[in-house]
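Continuing from the previous page of notes. For each protein in this section, the sequence appears first, followed by its structure tokens. Read the first protein now.
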Amino acid sequence: MLYLLETKLPENKSVFFALTNVYGIGKSTAFSICKKLGFSMNLKTKDLTQEQIIEILQLIDSLNLKLNNELKNLRSMNLKTLVSIKSYRGLRRVRGLPVRGQRTHTNAKSSRKGRRF
């Protein structure tokens, strides 16, 4: 297992798919990273050299991406801000109701079941 950016990456997967395991890196970002570094889409994580790993870390650092705990904290702070300013979306979150305009006339009970703040 390769430990990169506070995340364990599986060795048997390609670098493209392994990078998507990092919270905050999706398919498009992983694709652009592989393309900029000239990696093949079939390059496995176990075949990476130490220099290639350093290149990945430097490129991600230069992109100024928020990843893992930093991104999770940012998202939770945004939700807490909505609640603290008592916006409509914040009040809907507190009450456990749908936030984005979904129907509540018949589905309010089922929508409340799955929501956790």
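Done with the first. The second protein uses the same format. Note its length before scrolling.
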Amino acid sequence: MYTYFLTPLFLSGLVAGSPLVLRQTGPGTPTTGNNSTGTPSTSTGGIDMAAAIKAIMPSSNTCSGAQVPDDCRTADQAAPFIVKSYADFSPGELAGVLALMGLESVDFKFKHNVSPGRPGQGTANMMMPNFVSQYAASIFGEQAVAGQSPDAILSMVTVDEHNFGSAGWFLKTFCEPGIQDSLKTGTDAGFQAYMGCVGVDGNDSTRLEYWNRAKAAFNL
């Protein structure tokens, strides 16, 4: 299993104000899908998703001052897409994927790698290009992906409709059923198993901070 997430070098690069390499274009305001009532759904299982995201990702209440404004989404903007993408996920699974996305995207401030600027790496959980290609193929078909550059493929799945669902896709596609079941319990052991599948250190203090906030947000 390849580690596909941002390393501490990425986070240190942000602090140091590293230069933007792969700026994406597009509007800063996402479009949202509507439910049967004609309004976007922002809650699931009695949980206000926007409020949960804000609790897990403290800076997700605003995009003011974002280094890459086109990448940034607030909790309120992201919530409808997350509710739709994770409709069949348990609270434990939701807590796990949101904790992961929060750290990797720096509270939804980034959806592509800006330091060191690796072409094709991105989505809300910062997958490596090989996984991005597989994710895109799972949505659009292999023919749509064949022959495309890494950045072109990434642009296919960083639209709001697909950007936030990538972490769940990875969990269901690459993590063994036992790991998925363990994460459903909402326990620390389940989170550690999930991080092992991802290929990152589950004992990293910053990851644990996100996880602990996620547990609290979902009453785990």
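What the second structure shows: Residues 110 and 155 are 13 Å apart (CA to CA). The chain has twelve helices and two strands. We return to this in next week's lecture.
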